[in-house]
Structures are given as C-alpha cells and as structure tokens.
Amino acid sequence: MRVGRVMFALALGVAGCGAQSDSPTSVVFPKSVAVASASTSPSSGASAAVQPSPSPILFESATYHYSVRLPAGWSAKPATTAWDGAGVPVYGDPVTDSFGGPTAEAAAAFAFAAPTTQILSAYVASVIADNFKFHGDTCPAKPEIVEPITIGGEPGTLVGWNCGILINVAATVHGGTGYHFVFRDPAVAAATDPTDKATFAALLTSVTFGR
C-alpha cells in the first residue's frame, strides 16, 4: 500500500478542484479496455488506465458497480478481475480500482469488494484482523482510529493505522457486498492527517453505489 498526498476529505470538496468545473467528465472503464485520457478513445492492447485529467473525472467501476469522483490531476486504473474475498489486495493489484495522484510519491487510493453475509460491525472486525494477518510486518494489530463514517450515503467505518506510512480503510456493506476503500500516503508516518482526511472524505462522500 503506497502513494503520496491527496484523498481523504470528510465533508470537504475535492482537493485541487477549486478552479475546475463542478461537472466532472464521466468515464466508464470496462474491465479490459484501455483509456489514454478522459477524452481519448481506447486503444487496443494498451494497459487499462486513464492519464491525469485537467478536470474532475467521474470514475464508474465496471467490476464493483460504484462510481466515485476523482480530483483533477488524478489518474485511474480499473480492476481487470474481481476480488475473490481472499487475502488483502494492495494498490495496483489486478483486483483493485487504483487511483493515483500526479506523481509516484503522491497520495493514492484504491477500492475492491466481494460478497459477504456479515453485518458492518463483523465486517470491520474482519478487515482489522486480516490487515494484521497479511500486513503485520508493517502494520500493528490495533488500529489507532476506528470511527463511523458515511460512504456514498451508507453507514461505514473508518479505520486508520500508522504502518510506517498513513493507511486508512473505509469499509461498508451494501446490498450483500463488502466494500474496501483504501487511502495511503507514503509521505506521512501517522494514522491521521488533516489534508489526507479531507481528501479521502470528499471521495467517500462522492461515491454512488449501483445495483
């Protein structure tokens, strides 16, 4: 899990969108189609990614059936296959929709989901346990923050660790599917940061779930 700074805003507008239009470009990313930019036609054979856009992008996940508004300057790479619920994916994995800032050192986020029969409290407990199971070499067993949050109008929980870098996971259960929205900032060695929290919260507020 890594990246730089720009994505956790709970009730704040999307960072970096100040002078941009309020109407984002809507882009659907089919699982196996490459998109060079928000306004460019897909080119067969290229990696499934969209380059940074000067205006906000409304990313629509063909794999996990949600949409999210990305700040101007962010790029996106959609998942090419669905997560099977096993393990804990990281940024850039084929099962994740990955969203990055303008440089490799910038903050970033990613999302993945799978069917679940758990209620939110049990799902969050499994998120915490699995994070330590698979990332206990860098992350402590007990997170520094566990607090309620709203994700696309749904009740969710925000969990934060200092794993040598800032790692925040926002989890929710919608329609029998458990969703992970993850934010990471390699420039911050803490579980919380006001700028990151504001950017991430704006993303979470912009989420809309499909079927």
Q: Could you explain how this protein is built, in words?
A:
By secondary structure, the chain is of the alpha+beta class. It has a single domain, classed as Protein Transport Mog1p, Chain A. Helix content is 14%, strand content 31%. It contains two helices and eleven strands; from the N terminus they run ββββββαββββαβ. A seven-stranded antiparallel sheet has the order 4-5-6-10-9-8-7, sandwiched between helices. Strands 1-2-3-11 form a four-stranded mixed sheet. Strand 2 and strand 3 form a beta hairpin. The longest helix has 16 residues. The protein is globular, with a radius of gyration of 16 Å. The N terminus is likely disordered.
Oligomer: single chain
CATH top level?
Answer: Alpha Beta
CATH fold annotation = Protein Transport Mog1p, Chain A
Q: Outline, from the CA principal axes?
A: globular
Within CATH, the superfamily carries the name Mog1/PsbP, alpha/beta/alpha sandwich
Global Rg: 16 Å
User: What's the pLDDT, averaged over the residues?
Assistant: 80
List the uncertain runs: 1-47
| Helical segment count | 2
Q: What's the architecture, going by CATH?
A: 3-Layer(aba) Sandwich
Helix/strand-derived class?
A: alpha+beta
The end-to-end distance, rounded to whole angstroms, is: 28 Å
Number of domains: 1
The strands making up the biggest β-sheet line up spatially as: 4-5-6-10-9-8-7
In total, the number of strands is: 11
